[in-house]
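Need Zn-dependent protease's 3D structure for a figure. Predict it.
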Amino acid sequence: MYGMYGFGYGLFDGTFIFVIIGLVLSLAASAYVKHTFNKYDQVKSVNQVTGTSAAQYILNSQGIHNVGVQQISGDLTDNYDSRNKMLSLSQSTARSTSVAAIGVAAHECGHAVQDAKSYFPLRLRASLVPVANIGSQMAMPIILIGLLLQTNFLIQVGLIAFSLAFLFQVVTLPVEFNASRRALAILGEGGLLTPEELPQARKVLIAAALTYVAAAISTLLQLLRLVILFGGRGRND
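Structure prediction for Zn-dependent protease:
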């Protein structure tokens, strides 16, 4: 992504290995979650509850009545938006009665429960979204302008901006793992999944969580690359 900087830095400088490692990790995590989901999407739950029905049951059981549930297009595009209190389930989740679909629906409900209970990491992540987006988009332009003008201040600002994207990834980890723990506990207590099905749902949620771990590592590697390439420039400016 950030291979060709100009100013004497080629596409395949020594630090490009960081980009390759991050890409491989992200692709592997994505492939693993799809494989795991597809595997347990073939396992139909004993109770024959759809992802949508499971989500509605969980929300009601937790006393959450201000969150809507809707179906959206795509596969594994499930999400919870705390801004409009809307839980969106992809087609592969909403209509399916599989163990995988129920697990994913419950995970998103876990975020709604976090929101209802004012779970601090979720609040922190939401507050970081604007600055993280700006930081990831503006980091390289700011760094390149700093190099062009030979201004160390702008280079450092660019590095700090990109570090905000990494901070967002780090804060995301406890949010996602906690949502999965809440989901599995609720599924077990409510009897939506049998004791034999719960470990299968856990495997799906662990696989999904690994995509966030891979994203955090990939972003960290990119940040390290930027620091190595540009962090020491212009110290005497």
